[in-house]
Specification:
The chain is of the alpha/beta class. It contains 14 helices and nine strands. The chain has a five-stranded parallel β-sheet, with helices on both faces. The mean pLDDT is about 95.
Length: about 325
């Protein structure tokens, strides 16, 4: 996993090169549905956040909840191509629209896509699904005709940071030492909720830690009162704020930290460095930063970062 996280910027670069000829006709498309589970869904959630001008719906279920018609583009993502929910969803949705595109490394899904004459992108094999995000997100950006976003990327700078973060003397390792034995509560602004969710999932899988993510300002309208519970052990919790930038929310973060100062063991605000200026590179920087944070927490927790034993058991029982 260490090498896969370190090579995250290279994934992006490889995907850009591999998808030079990738295109799809969006002229008559009014809605985009991205379907996937676990690591195959997170790219869709991030895509929804970075392209609010597009009507994007992310589905994670056995069957469609959203309206699907001939003006709907369905992008179905399953890294293995054998995800039970994704195959079920495809069987339901393939009767509702002809506009289907697949992202997979192979398996049953690829066979279905080929048999039904749908377009697809084959992603590199040999990755845990959660570790191929740089590639799949770049494919989505290219597919949904957002090329101008990719032109802003500073791959070299991203790689410089990833190289630094791969070392035990990095700032991320220091942060991991503060939170690896806690239950992190992750807070983002609403437009970065997918990034908070990404960290929550990476802590679950890589670090074998429980965590959850919330957003500002909503957190201040309900959850903050829940922290009044006398059952809370401050040593068990930490607060991780991710790139809070809107002035009113910065004020809310500062006040919330004061109110909860005796309810958690540590609070930290992760910010995008000024070198990235607010472009797409900054978003990719956050993804890589948080992946490293989950890696170092797993390292400190002395767990097998690659293993997902409970998921494997569940899949075996379901089969």
């Amino acid at each position: 996993m260490h090498k896969k996280i370190k090579d995250f910027p290279a994934q992006i670069s490889n995907a850009i090169n591999d998808t030079k000829d990738l295109s799809i006709n969006l002229d008559n498309i009014h809605r985009v549905i991205i379907m996937g589970m676990g690591g195959s869904a997170i790219a869709g959630l991030i895509m929804k956040d970075i392209s609010p001008h597009l009507e994007i719906i992310v589905e994670r279920n056995y069957f469609p909840n959203a309206v699907i018609d001939e003006k709907t583009l369905l992008i179905i993502c399953s890294y293995s191509g054998n995800t039970e929910e994704s195959l079920s969803y495809y069987n339901h949705a393939s009767n509702l629209t002809k506009n289907i595109f697949g992202i997979t490394s192979g398996g049953k899904l690829l066979k279905l896509l080929k048999n039904d004459n749908h377009d697809y992108c084959i992603v590199p094999e040999g990755y845990p699904p959660r570790s191929i995000l740089g590639y799949t997100l770049t494919v989505l950006i290219k597919l949904l005709d957002e090329d101008e976003l990719l032109e802003l990327l500073n791959i070299e700078l991203l790689q410089d940071y990833s190289n630094k973060f791969s070392l035990e003397d990095s700032e991320i390792f220091s942060l991991a030492k503060k939170i690896h034995s806690t239950f992190p509560v992750i807070v983002t602004e609403e437009d970065l909720s997918s990034i908070g969710y990404r960290l929550k999932c990476q802590l679950n899988e890589n670090s074998k830690m429980l965590s959850y993510n919330v957003t500002l300002p909503e957190m201040n309208h309900n959850e903050i009162v829940g922290w009044d519970s006398k059952m809370i052990d401050k040593d068990l919790f930490s607060l991780i704020w991710i790139d809070i930038t809107f002035p009113a929310n910065i004020k809310r973060m500062d006040i919330t930290n004061k109110i909860l100062s005796n309810r958690n063991s540590y609070s930290h605000h992760i910010q995008i460095p000024s070198d990235f200026q607010n472009d797409l590179s900054g978003l990719f920087y956050l993804i890589n930063y948080l992946d490293w944070l989950s890696y170092w927490c797993g390292y400190l927790n002395k767990v097998d970062i690659n293993a997902v034993e409970s998921i494997d058991i569940l899949k075996k029982e379901l089969a």
